[in-house]
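Hi R.,

Quick one: here's the diguanylate cyclase sequence you asked about.
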Amino acid sequence: MNSHLPVGRMAERLESLPREHAWFAILVAVTALSWANHAYPSAGLLPLYVPIICAAGWALGERAAYFVALLTAILAIVPHLDDGGVSASLAVRTGVRVATYLFVAATIVSFRRSFDRQRHLALRDRKTGALNGETFNERFSEALTVASRASETLLLAIFDLDDFKGVNSAHGHAAGDAVLRTFARGAAGSIRREDAFGRIGGDEFAVLLRVHPADAGEMFARTLHSRVSAVLAAGEHPVTCSMGALVIPPHVPRDPAALMHAADQAMFVAKRAGKNACEITWADQPQRDGREQASGPLREQPA
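And here's the predicted structure, written out as tokens:
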């Protein structure tokens, strides 16, 4: 949604609120409007329930939208109950009000689903489902800032599929695409949901995750390389991969471009060492020897 428009800015603020805060704000707004409508029934305040329903659908989801729609529809007709009880006219007005508010709720929920779907696609590589390069870089920059404040250690790993061009040349681009998707599924399945996984080039991928303690970074890197290597070896067109891993302690300078370059250089060291290798280095120790190949058995997946 266009954040330059007032509605877009309001939607962003609603989305940034914790769920309990959003509920509190919506219930306060419903209560205040209900009181005003009861005190001044001829003021024409009923349309103001519509943006509250929209806010509930946008910030809290489908069930909340329908609940608020029904609640506000009931509150909208309460002042008229003092006019002489239930009548056919009041029943019709109640039915119209309920149908209208439910329609508003259904519309905003449908729009939110479409918005989320399009936003998801905009952040993803269409071929593999991984984050696209631009989004991964943004997540990396954000993670560096958060990790620095929280004194957390990060692990950045860059993968390059060995001899991938040979698969395209020998079996066609459809086979190459299948290899990319196989790798992406294996890598995404080997990390946690909160970790970042992106496609940053043709056959280059990157993973970013938090590690604790810091010394666990090297073990996680070797384990990750072992897992994705096993997935690639079991594919229809087996290939290997070279990985450069960079352990980033919280005290090192937070320069995303420089850190990406360091991880990329580690990957090229693995390539030059004979491929199908894992080169591990530390951001604060550029000369650290990390030339260990991940040829051992699979280990426990990082928690």
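The chain has two domains: 6-123, 133-282.

Cheers,
M.
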